[in-house]
Amino acid sequence: MRFSSVFVLASLVASSFASTVADVQADIADITTKLHALDDSITAFPTSGGTLTQALAIHNNAVALGSSIDQGATDTAAVTPNPVSDADGRSILDSFEALEPTINHALVGIVDRKAAFTALPLGGIPALVKQDLANLNASTSNIEAALIGSAPAGLVGEATDLKNRIDAAFATAIAAYA
Ligand SMILES: *[C@@H]1O[C@H](CO)[C@@H](O)[C@H](O)[C@H]1NC(C)=O
């Protein structure tokens, strides 16, 4: 009796750290919203004559996206079952791949605006952008690892290819701010 109570308690504790495929899909939806907000704020920043308010909006959107990615990484790493089913793995990977054009657009856009950030009257904005890029890269690395770690065997290669493409895009942008 006592033993089975301990077992039930242990199961409850374990389940409180587990997440479902639906949690992961909800996280990806949130990441998608935050990524578009970030990309839109970068696009809205003109290549000359932008304001400090606009630059800070980009920073705030980058921080918000980072939090969403971190939540997604936590849930994806704790998803049960692991690996997820072939159908769920396909659907999760499709959702991630759908983000790729916007990630690339945002990263190219931020590089294109480096001179405009440097020209702002308050110094330090390029350094802030550099830090935001480093943080987003680190968060993205974590969710990529969790995605690969929970992928069914038949999708590991495709998930790894996606990771390599996104990492390369980050490396290019980070190098521009080095
Ligand atoms: C991105 O983050 C990963 C994991 O922290 C790191 O290994 C990699 O060097 C980072 N990329 C760049 C360009 O800094």
From TrEMBL:
This is Hydrophobic surface binding protein. It comes from the Eukaryota. The keyword Membrane does not apply. Residues 1-18 form the signal peptide. It holds the Pfam family HsbA. The keyword Metal-binding does not apply. One of its GO terms (cellular component) is extracellular region. Keywords: Signal. Transmembrane segments: none annotated.
